[in-house]
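[job 4471] stage=fold_predict status=RUNNING
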Amino acid sequence: MDFLWHLVNEEEKEKIKKEAKQIMDNFAKALSEVEKQENKEAGLVKRDKNTREEKGIEKQPDSFRKIFFENAPNKEDNWIKAEKGSWKQ
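[job 4471] inference complete, writing structure tokens
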């Protein structure tokens, strides 16, 4: 049972270091040979429509829309312009 804990001498330390380095080098080489697959659509849900129907939402008074648009920094016609994902770091 030579796999149990024991004190190692300098020769054994060097052998362990060489084996560990060889394992790491082999892994790095194998990893570099793997083709990188960039999937920009990973995690996205495919849908038939780009919009959805809102259900169970009460109609807001016209004053709400007016105030909402007055507070929006960027708007164009009936749309509020917003930068998608600007909150990400």
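[job 4471] summary: The first strand starts at residue 75 and ends at 76.
[job 4471] exit 0
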